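Please describe the entry underneath.
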Amino acid sequence: MTMHTFPIRIYYEDTDFSGNVYHAAYLKFFERARTEFLRDAGIHHSELAAEGLAFAVRSMQIDFIAPAHIDDLLRVETEPVSATGARLTLRQTILRDGKILVGAELIVVAIRTSGGAARLPAALRALCAAKG
């Protein structure tokens, strides 16, 4: 799997007073898409938590290009870029009818719920290896 796609419908609760999607709502959309990307790869947050592992966003760069509006049906694409022992770099894009609305590149790190860094699950590292 190199590119994962996740649909998002825009609801009233996602918008601000202007009728556009509130900027922070895009973070929720990206998070949901990353969770489904992992789930489709056989990696489940509940199983990781039982093993004392979790993910944390280390950094994120976002480019807001055009607004989304109520009732829009968007597509969030998630693509692994690279992986090291504890870091995963992802590229995520939100599109409407093939037009890019928001783009992001982020680094996610694996952590132990008790504190400190952890190795990325092998299945996740394999996704990035298969891409390259």
Notes: The mean pLDDT is 92. The two ends are 11 Å apart (CA to CA).
